[in-house]
Amino acid sequence: MDIRKYLQENIVFLDGGMGTLLQARGLHAGEKPERWNITHAEDIIDIQKSYFDAGTNIINTNTFGANCLHFEEDELKDIINAAINNAREAAKRSVNTGVKLVSLDIGPTGKLLKPYGDLDFEEAVGIFAKTVKIGVEAGADLITIETMNDSYETKAALLAAKENSDLPVIVTNAYGEDGKLMTGANPAAMVAMLEGMGADAIGVNCSYGPKTLRPIIDEYLKVASIPVIIKPNAGLPKVIDGKTVYDVLPPEFAEDVADMIRAGVHVAGGCCGTTPEYIKALVDKVAKKKLQPVALSDKGLTVISSYTHAVTFGNTPRLIGERINPTGKKRFKQALIEDDVDYILNVGLEEAEKGAHILDVNVGLPDIDEILMLKKVTYELQAVCDLPLQIDTTDVAAMEAALRIYNGKPLINSVNGKEEVMEAIFPLAKKYGGAIIALTLDEAGIPAKAEGRLEIAKKILKKAAEYGIDKKDIIFDTLVLTLSAEPTAAVETLKALRLIRDELSACTSLGISNISFGLPSRDAINSTFFASALESGLSAAIMNPNSFEMMKTYRAFMALLGQDPNCSDYIAYMEENKQEVVTVSGNAAKTSTNSGSTPLQKAIIKGLKDEAGSCTAELLKTSAPLEIVTNEVIPALDIVGKGYEEKTIFLPQLLMAAESAKSAFEKIKEKMKAEGTKGEAKCKFIIATVHGDVHDIGKNIVRLLLENYGFEVTDLGKDVPPEVIVDEAVKQHAPLVGLSALMTTTVPAMEETIKQLRVKAPWVKVVVGGAVMNQEYADKIGADKYAKDAMETVRYSEEIEKALKE
Fold first, then answer.
1. By the 8 A CB rule, do 131 and 66 touch?
2. How far, in whole angstroms, is CA 335 from its chain's centroid?
3. Which residue ranges in the chain fall short of pLDDT 50?
4. Burial letters for 117-128: b for 16+ Cβ neighbours within 10 Å, e otherwise?
5. Cys bridge to 196: 409, 522, 630, 791, which one at CB 3.0-4.6 A?
6. CA distance linking residue 180 with residue 190, whole number of Å
């Protein structure tokens, strides 16, 4: 039979307590009850038959403590085999003609996992795996993981069950009076993790009687989309006349549990103190009230969790702290290289204190073992901070290493519309139960229009469904391009947000700060764009929680949205972050003091393309083409370049000046072609974004400036294999090759390209650049020049050009 379907569509009855019944039959204190499967098999069979006769559908084997910590391997195997045979025999002898299944029962190891105890996570997985393998071979119908009071150990057991069997798995946890597990998890956190990892039914057992556990069950029913289990004790134990008795009798027990079934519980039984009499009373009560299973409903929650709590996406915008990331952070890079984990932890703790709901964790750096470091930082960060984490890497092995030891349901950053990426990431998300950031790009890159990004989102959803991943576990990033390089970047990104919200009813995320790259006063652009994105339905923002402007915008938006009663959070934040009013002096807004001495120079510096073209056409009436280049265009570009290097001119101005110079060059080329003359082009320059990297904004800026300075540029595009770059350099005998990389994971491709160039084109000078690069990396991978920006590439290229002529 299809046990999973059976759990979903029926009211299913479990058994009750075993230990107290064995004690009544002579089990001594300290004696291991699991050995009774062999030494007192008839007692076990008789008890289990009684439960089946009472109406139980699923019997747990007498193997609660059967693991390799407590028994040698041969004895363990004998015990589990005997336990399953006993349960099978009990089912055979029972008069119950209904469904009778045998579940391999797995309890906690009795040890606390690291970092709080001495049991390593993988050791725990291995311990549970041995029990699972024996149980599967012995013929169990399903697996029960029960009485777990640590979310981490629960994950280890469920992972072992999923990795070593195809059997259905049901999981119950034991909660304290505070409604949390011993190690801090609340019900929503456990539902998020267990449902995400593929448990087939989840719930609560042991600890207290049904009335005390009812609020916890209500929390489960509120957020769970799979069958919920209740297996309470018969109240609290008392000792009367030397005997242990419980204060909830079968009628009261049955009434209380039946009420929970009416509320939506699908699977019910008893734990400590309960007997077959309790189960019969429950079965009869359900029959008498003619209760039917409440149809399951997918709650549709996009949720992640830490080891303490869940974070849900949707009505409340979530903040993802971006500071645990080496890109552009010299001190952070140093911490990674020096294995200074404390520094990294402090960065995360500071973000948590500033109000982040989730922490992005990215430790990608060519100088380190990313698999080891990502695993370590994830583990250590969860030991000191209870925020959920976003595991951020393009290294699949590093991703799996971190997901495996993550205590909760993580956020995975990221997948995209490329087939190979989806095929690598979706299985990990399915296995470890994460929600996924999905970038709306594919093999063709990032669509310029919002509609194109929507289509990629649809493609991602379709592929995800093939892996059994629902839309609720996909958060779409509609990708923030740099405003200074793409004027419609913000407009299309915001439109894509709205389209995905309205047409797909899906959650969204953005890396906010990308919008302002190259602009002055970046916080002003970031916070304004952030507000627009929130209004467009943004579910989560990857941002800097240390930014006053960003947090002020968020607090103000929450107040305006009606999610900050009495504006209390906004008022408190503003009181805590009182800012002095700063009047910007005339010196604060720097501009170039040299605005050019001629109309053409001024047009280029100001970025006036049409004016630059008309000025050039006018000059060509009286001046030689190359004279205009030498005396007008290049000096203007030098002025802009110097201003850019001195930070008095910003990227948009640099690009506009380059476009204006390009307009001037077009007029000059037309004149030279008409006259049948040729200009003296500068040396050849091969440029490419390296293999595996789809970012090409920086490369395109460099190409544009090089062309304006007269270099003969061959742009090979993005994601270019080393062999293609080398072959082109050899073919053209180019003296210069420029390599760009934005992601840390693609620096090895850059290194490989340089190695091949050294063999096949030893004359080539290699310039490297990109957000992840620095002088140290450049030296390490054998580059000739590290260029921190486009103008530095131009300056170096001119030096090479001059040396070639000499």
1. yes
2. 22
3. 580-593
4. eebebebbbebb
5. 409
6. 10
Neighbour tally for 396: CB within 10 Å: 14
* Per-residue model confidence as pLDDT tens digits over 536-568: 999 999 999 999 999 999 999 999 999 999 999
What region does 379 belong to: left with phi over 0, alpha with psi -120 to 50, or beta? alpha
Give me 151's structure tokens: 């979310």
Task: Specify whether the CB–CB gap between 186 and 308 falls below 8 A.
Answer: yes
Mean pLDDT, the chain, integer: 92
Q: Which amino acid is at 78?
A: D
Q: Please state the separation of Cα 293 from the chain's center in Å.
A: 36
Is residue 49 within 8 Å of residue 66, measured between CB atoms?
A: no
**502 exposure class (CB count in 10 Å sphere: 0-12, 13-18, 19+):** exposed
Q: Cα–Cα distance between 297 and 342 in angstroms, integer?
A: 44
In whole angstroms, give the CA distance from residue 572 to residue 358: 21
Please report, as a single letter, which amino acid is at residue 208.
Y
User: Angle at the Cα of 301 (from 430 to 208), degrees rounded to 5?
Assistant: 90
Helix (H) or strand (E) holding 543: strand 540-543
Query: Would you say 20 and 272 are in contact if contact means Cβ atoms under 8 Å apart?
Result: yes
What are the DSSP calls for 671-701, one per residue? HHHHHT-------EEEEEEBTT----HHHHH
Report the C-alpha gap between 662 and 242 in whole angstroms: 97
Identify the three-state secondary structure at position 110: coil
Q: Characterize the bridge pairing of strands 765-769 and 411-416.
A: unpaired
Total-model pTM: 0.84
CA atoms of 228 and 226, how far apart (whole Å): 6
Q: Rounded CA gap, 423 and 463, in Å?
A: 9
> Which is it for strands 765-769 and 785-786: parallel, antiparallel or unpaired?
parallel
Peptide bond just before 366 cis, omega within 30 deg:
no
Residue whose entry in the numeric block shows the structure tokens 């299309």: 492
Cis peptide bond prior to 115, omega within 30° of 0? yes
Taking the C-alpha atoms of residue 565 and residue 561, their distance in angstroms, rounded to an integer, is 10
| Helix then strand then coil, % of the chain, to nearest 5 | 50, 15, 35
Residue bearing tokens 């399951």: 296
